Amino acid sequence: MARPRIVALFTDFGTTDVYAGVVRGLIRSMAPESEVIDVTHGIPAGDRHAAAFMLLSAVPFFPRGSIHLCVVDPGVGTERRIVAVRASGQTFVAPDNGVLAPVVEALGGAADVRYLTNERLQRPRRSATFHGRDVMAPVVAHLVRGIDFAQVGEAADGIVDLPGFAPEIGDGSVTGRVLHVDRFGNLVTNLLPGELAGPPGSWDLRVGDEPIERWGTTFGDVASGQSVVVTGSVGFLEVAVRDGNAADVLSARAGTRVTATRKAT
Fold first, then answer.
1. Which residue ranges in the chain fall short of pLDDT 50?
2. The model's pTM
3. Secondary structure of the chain in HEC code, one letter for each residue
4. pLDDT value at position 258?
């Protein structure tokens, strides 16, 4: 692989505290040649499913050789491991808590997986609560500087899966969840159009207990205030309310149950 330069940051740090800026500054101080891109620091705190969705949404638009640092780490300081993964020309550094599983699968699987066990690449004094700064960011900087990938640590057999990211598919029914609520209040589900065979109108879809009766191609296919199911830009089914906020109207949030049931013929 070509020597990396782009570092893409995905965190739940927000922008009120200094955490995101500190990680960015540490990488730049150790690897001034790096180009650090703040993809998002707005992942809901500790939400691994939202983090996985963000990675799926963004990674395909980055050039080969990019390094993606994802710090959504509700188990920081525990026995959970931290991994570096190479897949389809991309490099990932993240807690091994499932956040990488969907994007790595979408890229065709991991070519190499390593635990971050080489402490010489990390900060000598490591906080138990900020591994993004003290463990992950320094390793990313060293990768930018051109160290061999194998130096980050011992080989791993694979990465942890993310239960609940894919829906449960039954005979004539699909049960999933809201993966993400965007800033417009649109509900991104984990259902894919291909999992609902036949015309969209042949399925009853519910968010929680609320039925969504209209299916469209764009938000403009329904009248103002009406809800609609569309295929979103990442490929998942989304529920929106035209000129409104679906999360508010449907009292839904990340994790809300979504069901699709084939109509009787």
1. none
2. 0.93
3. CCCCCEEEEEECCCCCCCHHHHHHHHHHHHCCCCEEEEEECCCCCCCHHHHHHHHHHHHHHCCCCCEEEEECCCCCCCCCCEEEEEECCEEEEEECCCCCHHHHHHCCCCCEEEECCCHHHCCCCCCCCCHHHHHHHHHHHHHHHCCCHHHHCCECCCCCCCCCCCCEECCCEEEEEEEEECCCCCEEECCCHHHCCCCHHHEEEEECCEEECCECCCHHHCCCCCEEEEECCCCCEEEEECCCCHHHHCCCCCCCEEEEEECCC
4. 97
Tokens in use for 73? 């780490």
Phi, psi of 264 (to 5 degrees): -70, 140
Contact between residue 66 and residue 10 where contact means Cβ atoms under 8 Å apart: no
> What does the pLDDT look like over 165-180, one tens digit per residue?
999 999 889 999 999 9
* pLDDT for res 199: 80
Which domains are seen in the chain, by residue range? 6-152 (3.40.50.10790), 168-262 (2.40.30.90)
| Distance, CA of 227 to CA of 196 (rounded, Å) | 19
Tokens of 72: 């959504």
Amino acid at 116: L
Dist. CA 228–CA 221, nearest whole Å: 8
Length of the chain: 265
Task: Report the sign of the C-alpha dihedral through residues 30, 36, 40, 41, in that order.
Answer: positive
